[in-house]
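mind reviewing this fold:
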Amino acid sequence: MRWLHSVARRAIAIVVAVLASMPDGRAADYPGAIADLRVARGTGTIADAWLADATTRYRHFVLGSPYEAASLMVRLRDGKLLRLTLPDDSVFEDRQPRLADLDGDGIDEIVLVRSYLNRGAALAVIAVRDGALSIVAETPPTGSPNTWLNPAGIADFDGDGMVDIAYVQMPHVLGLLRIWTLRSGRLIEIASMPDTSNHVIGSPHLGLSAVADFDGDGVADLAVPTKDRKYLRFLSFKGHARELGRKPLGSTALSDFKLRHVSGVPFVDVGPAGGSAGLMGLR
């Protein structure tokens, strides 16, 4: 059980890895950065990662700005800069690179949303290979243009010791939560749950979710709103996908959630949607 708690804490730390919007005066430190600069900071081989090269070739603009990113930039620990530029058939329909060791080799991969102009959105896993950035795994695209997905959390959700990725497919229309894990170089779906959402259309806020061991069983759980964003659901994927509980929100969830602990117990700070206190927990 101590090992399980250690895994859960490590996974939760991945989800809340430092993602910072940099002051304008620092933008020169990040070549090609898009206007909505959010930098992921790593502690291993990858020092920094950010999105670059704004493009208008995919005119969905679900995140509220009239551009998406054509490239991913990475600064390695030794200072070397790497760039991965997508072909003209796709963009990174995202704002924040996510760093996590998905294959257990001790080296972080990068998780981003890639959207194809004609085939919809996919979850892409990018790694440093032979001194360059490469897409090493990708989920099947959603199937048609303007059908987006938004990552909800990265953690060991099923308790097998490997880190998984959760996203909500079409959070404004379909609201399907899907959990994927990297096995033998492929992303495999291991669970799903309907009636979820983690984004308001046209909003830059991507983080309407939180990851923690909400029920105290040593395995990370996921807190995410219902599709109408009026309730907060606490979900577990240990053994099988199930709802641990739900709490009504004071108003419709609109902005990024924050994870807070009170006497060692995890709570979700849902901001204005939670009323004056704004803290919601399972226990």
About this structure: Residues 1-25 have pLDDT under 50 and may be disordered. The two ends are 19 Å apart (CA to CA). The first helix runs from residue 2 to 15. The longest strand covers residues 46-55.
